[in-house]
Amino acid sequence: MSNEVTQGIDEIIKNVPGVVGVLLTDMDGIPIYTNGRFDLQPFRLCALTTVASKCSLEIGNAIGQPMTMMIAEYVLYKVFTILIPGLAQLIILAKAKDAQMGLIRIEANKAVQIFLNSLESEIQEETL
């Protein structure tokens, strides 16, 4: 994974008040990159979030609506899961009272775009 991608993910923690952790996983929930403080081991958080995402994806498919983001709200935290269809998911853990959803979406979209651009560059380099 490129340095640009990790920096893009790290920017979420730096730029968004209340964000305590960010994880990038593959579609099976295997961590690709993690940064932050977690009460639960990151690989367990990734696995559990992936199961929840897959269930939400099935609901979306059943009603004809693709899922792009899932937000789970708990007493102390909000967990944002942004799907990068067929590739990965970006999981953002934020303190519930401090979570600024709009800012989280903006920063998450930036990180996802950096990730996609990096993949595109890698594919182009491989085909040369």
Q: Averaged pLDDT, please? A: 89
CATH topology label: Beta-Lactamase
Globular, elongated, flat, extended or rod-shaped: what is the shape?
Answer: globular
* Count of helical stretches: 3
Give me the Rg, rounded.
14 Å
CATH class: Alpha Beta
Measured as a percent range, the helix fraction is 40-55%
- β-strand percent reads 25-35%
The total of beta strands comes to: 5
The biggest beta sheet reads:
5 strands, antiparallel
Class derived from helix and strand content: alpha+beta
Order of helices and strands: HEEHEEEH
Unreliable sequence segments: none
Number of domains: 1
Distance between the termini: 19 Å
CATH superfamily descriptor: Dynein light chain 2a, cytoplasmic
Secondary structure blueprint with pairings:
Blueprint lengths: L2 H13 L3 E8 L4 E6 L5 H21 L6 E5 L3 E8 L3 E8 L5 H27 L1
Antiparallel strand pairs: 1-2, 1-5, 3-4, 4-5
Helix pairs in contact: 1-3
Can you characterise this structure?
With 128 residues, the chain is an alpha+beta fold. It has one domain: Dynein light chain 2a, cytoplasmic (Beta-Lactamase), CATH 3.30.450.30. It contains three helices and five strands. The protein has a five-stranded antiparallel β-sheet, sandwiched between helices. It starts with a helix and ends with a helix.
